[in-house]
Amino acid sequence: MVVNRETDENGKPLVTVDGNYSSVKGEVRDLVSLFIDVESVEEIGDPSLYVHEGSDVRFRFLPCEEKERVYFRGLGWEHFYMYTTVFLDIGIRFPFTEFECGVLNQLKCAPTQIHPNTWAFIRGFEILMEYLGTTPLLEVFFSFFQAKEVRKGEVVTVNSMQGKALFGLYRQSYKDFKQMYIKVGCVEEQFPFYLDEFGL
Fold first, then answer.
1. Residue 125 and residue 141 in contact, taking contact as beta carbons nearer than 8 Å
2. Which 3 state secondary structure label does DSSP give 30?
3. What is the rounded distance in angstroms from the CA atom of residue 136 to the CA atom of residue 140?
4. What does the buried/exposed string (b/e) look like for 119-128 if buried means 16 or more CB atoms within 10 Å of the residue's CB?
5. Torsion angle of alpha carbons 2, 64, 153, 186, nearest 10°?
6. First-last CA distance in the chain
7. What is the pLDDT of residue 152?
8. Where do runs of H (alpha helix) occur along 32-186?
9. Entry pTM
């Protein structure tokens, strides 16, 4: 994969990426992570703070290189990208729950394709179902929420079905998250915790 760092007539970087990322459009192609050095990554804190209680999953946060973009994929699945607000503010923990994986699979999305407000709906639904003493089911979730314009290479949002609003938006204006992405990598001796035994 090769990144071109030329600029347009206004001095704004033109980023072209050779690879199979032609479906990615808009500003996502241009935005460099704010986490490009070890010091910025350390400010997030100990990765063990973001693990489900009782889980033996171990991972690490890694800085992004300036040429990397949130939609890249590690060649050997050695890492994936996450917007930090998803675990810092919304409370998503690793490994993803079966329900969270189900939503990702249903929408055919990577974690960074899901808008933070949508992550808040997912987490809120899980908490509500836990309070009610029942298992969160995809069928029930998607009877209250519908995906809006699922397009390859774009951020996916879900909205409440008309007349069935369970929750309000986590944030009305969610503008500053797109450069707040980080690499999440497994420790070398552990099979990637985000893949099952079939590599899915």
1. yes
2. coil
3. 7
4. bbbbbbbbee
5. 110
6. 23
7. 64
8. 38-42, 84-88, 98-107, 116-131, 138-144
9. 0.77
Phi-psi region of 153 (alpha: psi -120 to 50; beta: other; left: phi over 0): left
Of 191, 175, 170, 192, nearest to 92 (Cα)? Answer: 170
- Determine contact, residues 147/156, Cβ cutoff 8 Å: yes
Structure-block tokens of residue 4: 């071109």
User: Do residues 71 and 183 touch, judged by C-beta distance below 8 A?
Assistant: no
Amino acid at 17: V
**Taking the CB of residue 24, how many other CB atoms lie within 10 A of it?**
17
Amino acid at 143: S
Look at the chain and count its residues: 200
What tokens were used for 40? 């910025």
Distance CA 122, CA 41 (A): 26
Predicted confidence pLDDT, tens digits, the chain (200 residues): 333 445 545 554 444 444 555 556 666 677 888 889 999 999 998 988 899 888 888 888 989 888 887 777 666 667 888 899 999 999 999 889 999 999 998 988 888 888 899 999 999 999 999 999 999 999 999 999 988 776 666 778 888 888 787 776 766 666 778 888 898 887 765 556 566 666 66
